[in-house]
Amino acid sequence: MKKIAVLPGDGIGPEIMAEAVKVLKALDLPLQLDWADVGGKAYETAGHPLPPATLKLAQEADAVLFGAVGDWKYDKLERSLRPEQAILGLRKALGLFANFRPAICYEQLTHASSLKPELVAGLDILIIRELTGDIYFGQPRGRRTAVDGHFPGSEEGFDTMRYSRPEIERIAHVAFQAARKRNKRLTSVDKANVLETSQLWKDVVTEVHKDYPDVELDHMYVDNAAMQLVKAPKKFDVVVTGNMFGDILSDEAAMLTGSIGMLPSASLDVNNKGLYEPSHGSAPDIAGNGIANPLATILSAAMMLKFSLNMPEAAARIEAAVESVLAQGLRTADIWSEGTSKVTTLEMGDAVVKAI
Amino acid sequence: MKKIAVLPGDGIGPEIMAEAVKVLKALDLPLQLDWADVGGKAYETAGHPLPPATLKLAQEADAVLFGAVGDWKYDKLERSLRPEQAILGLRKALGLFANFRPAICYEQLTHASSLKPELVAGLDILIIRELTGDIYFGQPRGRRTAVDGHFPGSEEGFDTMRYSRPEIERIAHVAFQAARKRNKRLTSVDKANVLETSQLWKDVVTEVHKDYPDVELDHMYVDNAAMQLVKAPKKFDVVVTGNMFGDILSDEAAMLTGSIGMLPSASLDVNNKGLYEPSHGSAPDIAGNGIANPLATILSAAMMLKFSLNMPEAAARIEAAVESVLAQGLRTADIWSEGTSKVTTLEMGDAVVKAI
Ligand SMILES: CC(C)[C@H](C(=O)O)[C@@H](O)C(=O)O
Ligand SMILES: CC(C)[C@H](C(=O)O)[C@@H](O)C(=O)O
Fold first, then answer.
1. Nearest to B227 among A195, A222, A252 (CB)
2. Please, what are the domains in chain A?
3. Which residues of B touch A249 (CB under 8 A)?
4. Which of B135, B198, B251 lies nearest to residue A161, judging by beta carbons?
5. Which positions in this protein are listed as binding NAD(+) (chains A, B) (predicted)?
6. What is the pTM of this model?
């Protein structure tokens, strides 16, 4: 019996999670699902976005299935109580350093992209983002009186970007291994022409490359990567980068596909225990309307079965079922186009179950 | 007599600069042009990418016209001697804190974009990037032995992100004033859900907004901005952001237009003295072939006349001449398409001169 912590969260989180759970149940696997509040919902019920009980559940589980957190109504709270602290807290507490964000353009959804169809048809990039280091967690940080710079004596905000050699090594190994299973090309993104942290990043990735001579490595500055993703996204295979640059580039890449409502993600620790969540956010503007696309969450559940629970056949069944509902022409509003059938969140979940 | 420091630099720099100078001379303005080496070229002739003589010339000039720097052949030099240190050094030494990067899609060049024509036709965004602060220049930075974090005792690279209140205030004023002259909408981009520096940024921009009640302000996280630029770029008017995020987003926005070879930029100090350069790089792969697009540099010269030299009529004449050569169907290779006439760098410069 494997234990799954199910954390629906805010906005459309509960709706899309209900469908993913429906799909998991249809597979009749040896899974025990335990639910808990997280994000704004948990702040309301327990006074904190990541209450101790939720954290404990996540720590004791074999994997975490996460919906989405955040709502404008919490914008006025102090930062430590805001919903997104839940996801940052989980990443840190569970040591989820390796974030896998595929940017895939499904054949039937090519039209949904902002890009010309020939640029995105068949797109399949994997962005691997380091998730527990960098300026997200570096100390010191805060506000203080500037002692140097342009305006000594004035108030300043500051943060510390940092990466240590072993942190870079472990994410580099993850990335080279992932590239090996794909088209054997890895692009490491940094800003080594300006940042010391990036120079170490580049040096260490270059060293780790010696263990993977069969993988082709190139280095790209982050500003150039942001451009090349727009210009010729299909030139990329696997991209590895730090937490901050990965935040920006993985969202840009996801949006290039035009169907971010389809994209799952995995965040893994050193033992492949992971947290799985859709790449999109909590979309409070459409929450409760039953129109959200549950497929990213359903595909996140498939990733979970594959990466953390060693149930690759069950994962493949979900993936095949998703392909099949797309082939049937079923579409939630976000990916709908002339000539396809618009369905609700619930109908989409039911269709996937039926296809299984 | 106004003094212009002309710094052609590396790669295609000399070729595109020759055309911009040709255009300036055709206008017969009271300008004195003084040339100097910069970047890799200066490293070769004087041992440093920004030699004292070049810096002095730039400091004494009323404006700097800059080509481009960088070439792979300098990749092995230590960072302080690499070509890009010239541009960082000039920004810092001249106090060029306000970088203007328009992302404009010329009607005749809509087809060159990766995006569907309806998403970019008529696009006209202005990205204002703070250019002398942030993690680019923050101290301390370097390598050291980690005392905390995930791997205490290991080597780490680190950098400091920082912004002081007056630094944010002055760039915010520049941005609100620019928005006032356009469609009165300003988007401030930060990562305040994670970074202390960003939270101060957001707070200060919100305060400065009180002086500009006629301008509509919204705040956007940088990951979301990277997505919205792809999804619906025309929703933006003016964007203001820090040095690091501005580096990434301004390049992404430029590439969205598909014609980065057309885009000028200005970097201004508190007195509107400025450095003007094309948004594209030194393109060493095509240097010397006479095929580079000189229009971004020619339009940078126009920006210089307008922003720093108070010669708006002359600037308008250049801009009209560029519109006219495009209307004539003249195109360098980067923007060429079926049915238009392919011209060389030199022919394009001549055509602009003729149109003046
Ligand atoms: C909510 C936020 C803190 C988070 C991040 O920046 O990592 C999100 O943007 C993401 O990418 O998961
Ligand atoms: C060359 C590099 C240091 C520079 C920067 O990062 O600012 C460049 O990318 C730019 O945007 O002008």
1. A252
2. 1-99+263-356 (3.40.718.10), 114-257 (3.40.718.10)
3. 226
4. B135
5. 281-293
6. 0.97
